[in-house]
């Protein structure tokens, strides 16, 4: 064998050894998982049924059914695959086959009569292996997609922060200087009515541009959230909605207010921001009530409006390109381990509930 071949063989054995070590490390966690004991109960029940049917040779029904328990092993094998991936399916199938061998050897007196049922058991192991591999593949794909979505949102927020800083440090400051210069012009030419009128118009336009740029910066990345925290940031969102739209708002904050992880605070803030944006654009509401409760292990939030409401299909079946704001709220919550629930009926308003650990 060449050196390269020996190296490849050593790497292969090291990979298998690493997987075996990881499996052993996870075993104590499996013992604390209720699903593990459900699987063991299924396997032992099927083995007991198999022994009972094989031991009792009488009766046409039992004679025709004594092969069935081996087929039943597919139930715990499939359940183990769905619960623990390929390793769960393989180990449960192997465990089932191991428990079946003594039973087959004991009750089948004819030579090699037990081989048929043992082959059936091995087929169950193969089914568990294939199904477990598929489950593991889908799980890894879902994890990759979640990591991609998380990275995409993080990059988006970093870009928003950069843009907000550039606009604030450059555009807003230039507009402020323009406003001050126009104020000096007004002071110099206060006796020339026509010039004053023109400058006053320019001053109003410049002031509107300043307000617009500041609002744009706040939408991109609110400094108040980074500086003062989630509670203050949500208060600002609620107050801004009422000031701009005239919608009556009420905010209740309870529990021990505290700072959370930056990603968690940003996710909750963006969800609240999107919910209020939907109220402003689509609900035609006159009142909005928001509640934020800080628990010892996270945040609970609810936004309720009295608007027109709508009929929402299950978010998992929303067509691509539709209800992107609602889908975005759900994905933001998922990326920090939380959940979003949306309830709405036509003419009954909309309620958005958020639960996020932190």
Characterize the structure shown.
With 358 residues, this protein is an alpha+beta fold. It contains eleven helices and five strands. A five-stranded mixed beta sheet has the order 1-2-3-5-4, covered by helices on one side. Strand 4 and strand 5 form a beta hairpin. It is elongated, with a radius of gyration of 33 Å. About 3% of the residues have low confidence.
Descriptive tags:
single chain, 11 helices, alpha+beta, about 350 residues, about 10% strand, elongated, five-stranded mixed beta sheet, 5 strands
Map the helices and strands.
Layout: H1 3-31, H2 34-55, H3 60-65, H4 68-72, H5 74-107, H6 115-188, H7 193-220, H8 223-228, H9 230-245, E1 248-255, H10 262-283, E2 287-295, E3 298-305, H11 324-335, E4 339-345, E5 349-357
Helix pairs in contact: 2-5, 5-6, 6-7, 9-10, 10-11
Poorly predicted segments: 58-62, 317-321
Q: Could you state the oligomeric state of the chains shown?
A: single chain
Helix content: over 70%
Give the overall form: elongated
Strand content: 5-15%
Largest sheet features? 5 strands, mixed
Mean residue pLDDT? 76
Q: Can you write the helix and strand succession as a string? A: HHHHHHHHHEHEEHEE
As a whole number of angstroms, the C-alpha radius of gyration is 33 Å
Strands across the major sheet, in which order?
1-2-3-5-4
Q: What's the helix count? A: 11
Number of strands: 5
First-to-last CA distance? 55 Å
Structural class by SSE content? alpha+beta
